[in-house]
Design goal:
By secondary structure, this protein is α/β, with parallel strands linked by helices. The chain contains seven helices and six strands. Strands 3-4-2-1-5-6 form a six-stranded parallel beta sheet, with helices on both faces. Helix 4 (106-118) links the parallel strand 3 (94-98) and strand 4. It is globular, with a radius of gyration of 18 Å. Keywords: Magnesium, Metal-binding, Transferase.
């Protein structure tokens, strides 16, 4: 337990639909319940000294979902930004969106940009919302930016600088996935090369501060070797 709390935690918030179905409710009911969990986890992360929290909110593949569900998710994002803006500012939260802007409606983009600007001067925890995000797409976009600069040889550092989070966003030390699924789901493919994973069967709307702490404690007990040998070898 002598290791530090991770600087950057990424979460795949999975299980909203199954949670709603178990209660005889439409899927959007689960997404709405999941939004309430975000606030609790964000504040707890800030209290623990975590500097970056990245949440997988909407993937590029999620456009394939039923139209009603997609519209509901867009509405919930707008509601979150409108209702939580003041509290985010009060808690010194900086906000960033990771992902592409195409296919997103102008009113959603406008609210996203306004909220990011409103919180821009905050220097506490940074909340990264992966929205209209895909890991493969992120790498493609980074390479295409470098090609426009007529780079003759591309290094890892070059790609890192062109990722959505920019060079200032460190790779996540810990990735948490709820609902018991053992998939990466096209999330932060470049950034999680040496991240530690914590998988829980808990569905996201039931994910508690207690389990968040358990995940962090589990991480802190691990030895990160980055391809090398353990200290006792």
């Amino acid at each position: 337990m002598n290791k530090k709390v991770p600087k950057h935690i990424a979460i795949i918030m999975d299980g909203n639909g199954r949670w709603a179905k178990s209660k005889g409710q439409p899927r959007i009911f689960g997404h709405k319940a999941g939004m309430k969990v975000i606030k609790n986890i964000l504040i707890e992360a800030k209290e623990l000294g975590i500097k970056y929290l990245t949440l997988y909110a909407f993937s590029t593949e999620n456009w394939k979902r039923p139209e009603d569900e997609v519209k509901g998710l867009m509405f919930l994002l707008k509601e979150y930004l409108k209702k939580e803006r003041k509290d985010l500012n009060k808690n010194n939260v900086k906000l960033k969106f990771l992902g592409r802007r195409d296919n997103v409606s102008k009113d959603v983009l406008k609210l996203m940009d306004e909220t990011v600007e409103f919180l821009d001067k905050n220097d506490g925890i940074t909340l990264n919302i992966a929205f209209n995000y895909g890991g493969r797409q992120e790498i493609i976009d980074a390479v295409n930016k470098l090609l426009l600069e007529k780079k003759e040889k591309i290094t890892e550092e070059d790609i890192q600088k062109k990722l959505y989070g920019g060079p200032e966003l460190p790779d996540p030390e810990l990735v948490i996935r709820t609902s018991g699924e053992f998939r990466i789901s096209n999330f932060l493919l470049w950034e999680i090369a040496y991240s530690e994973f914590y998988i829980t069967n808990t569905l996201w709307p039931d994910f508690s501060i207690k389990e968040f702490r358990i995940a962090i404690l589990d991480y802190m007990k691990r030895e990160r070797r980055f391809g090398g040998l353990s200290n006792d070898k």
